[in-house]
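Reminder to self: tokens first, then the designed residues, so the page reads top to bottom the way the pipeline ran.
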């Protein structure tokens, strides 16, 4: 997966009106907690006042012509998230995966062993040696072109939920190594 230094888009997981930044001293206003679309990093944003923001909304946060966000204040640690941001995180991560299906299917098509004993796909919950071998054998015949294709050919169900669980582990800091989230 190519990693851009900065995120272009982020998805809102919580909005705090008339609040204080946790990452920049003396910044206050519409504080938005979000997760980046590409690197899946937790971010704190400063939104324009009097704008409407919705949980799960995809916001442009790139370098120029932002319409709803004044600035990206910084990266957030999972522990800095509000309780409702933590609650929303699973759904928002699932939406990111669905909206970027091609990217995640490419990951499955290109995933390699990390060590002689562990394949990176085995870090996805529910993928053990049996599913791993089915995935490898099937992708050698023909690359997967969708989540449905993967399920039909390997029997792996709920791949979006499984990848989402893995990303959540990485975002929350409970994973020993990251395969999706940029550190």
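Designed residues (183 positions):
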């Amino acid at each position: 997966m190519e990693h851009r230094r900065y995120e272009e888009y982020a998805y809102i997981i919580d909005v705090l009106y008339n609040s204080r930044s946790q990452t920049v001293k003396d910044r206050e206003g519409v504080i938005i907690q979000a997760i980046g679309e590409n690197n899946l990093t937790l971010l704190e944003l400063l939104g324009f006042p009097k704008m409407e923001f919705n949980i799960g909304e995809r916001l442009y946060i790139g370098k120029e012509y932002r319409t709803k966000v004044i600035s990206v204040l910084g990266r957030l640690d999972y522990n800095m998230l509000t309780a409702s941001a933590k609650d929303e995180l699973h759904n928002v991560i699932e939406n990111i995966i669905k909206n970027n299906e091609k990217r995640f299917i490419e990951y499955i098509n290109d995933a390699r062993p990390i060590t002689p004993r562990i394949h990176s796909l085995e870090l996805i919950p529910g993928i053990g040696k049996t599913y791993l071998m089915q995935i490898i054998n099937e992708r050698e015949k023909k690359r997967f072109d969708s989540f449905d294709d993967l399920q039909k050919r390997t029997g792996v169900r709920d791949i979006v939920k499984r990848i989402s669980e893995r990303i959540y582990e990485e975002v929350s800091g409970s994973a020993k190594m990251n395969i999706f989230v940029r550190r």
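The CA atoms of residues 65 and 71 lie 11 Å apart.
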